[in-house]
Specification:
Elements lengths: L6 H13 L2 H6 L8 E6 L2 E7 L6 E8 L2 E8 L2 E7 L5 H4 L9 E4 L4 E5 L1
Antiparallel strand pairs: 1-2, 1-7, 3-4, 4-5, 6-7
Amino acid sequence: MKRMLSRRDIVLLATLFLCSFVPLAIFGWGGSPVMTAVITVDGATVREIPLTTHEGRETFTVETPGGTNDITVDGHAIAVTNADCHDKICVKSGAIAKKGDAIACLPHKLVIEIR
């Protein structure tokens, strides 16, 4: 009777299994990433807020040539809570807390992005 797996098959499977861990060695084990909210107006950075270490609630106003936006940082999340633009899409988008999320107020050229 013939064997199902030869010695070469076992070596190949073991090599592929070990190679599957190479991305973890290169990119890390995925510990808690440092998240920073970057607020830009017309492409220029206005403020950077480290969300990973932020505690409590903070509200501040960002004034742009087009108007004002009230921004609230609550724990590890950030949101535009009030804006004097006509559509208020930035307010309706709610709070963001994950890396890659963004809020944009196009009339004021304001963007909040979590990096």
